[in-house]
Amino acid sequence: MPDAPRPYDPACIFCRIGRGEAPASIVYRDADVIAFMDIRPVNPGHVLVVPIAHAGSLADLAEHDGQPMFSAAQRLAGAVRRSGARCDGVNLYLADGVAAGQEVFHVHLHVLPRFAGDGIRLAAFGRQQSPSHHAASWMGLRTQSAGRLAPRRI
Ligand code: AMP
Ligand code: ZN
Predict the structure, then answer these.
(1) Which residues are catalytic?
(2) Is 88 domain-assigned?
(3) b/e burial code for range 57-75 (CB count within 10 A of at least 16 → b)
């Protein structure tokens, strides 16, 4: 039986880049993933790793599309370090949802080269808590994750 068509949204800029219908500085491509330079780089060498299949959010992303994205990001982190870009460290960053800062609603993973003094930081840091303080969120997460993750969409 032929494979189901890959999800595609003609209004989505990352889908269009994946099909070669919109320009991008592509640095990597395989059967599942494309990676290209961020148009507004936070640091030189800032790359986006994008599943070719359209998924607006992590909840919509099939695991078989998410896994290649993370694998490619791992390899691209090494490539950025070797590329000559100033890169003493790497952040992988993924914004899922408006509240998390997502602007393009096609899942993507930022590979962000870092160096000391580059001025990038998460604006807020948590305060240390004793286990009794995070009991509520801990119980909810345990219930949802221990054998009760959302079914795989394969
Ligand atoms: P976010 O959704 O917050 O993770 O960020 C979306 C990222 O996509 C931003 O860093 C943008 O600079 C980047 N971006 C948006 N449009 C393009 C494009 N056409 N080519 C490359 N990067 C883009
Ligand atoms: Zn898309």
Answers:
(1) 108
(2) yes
(3) eeeebeeebbebbeebbee
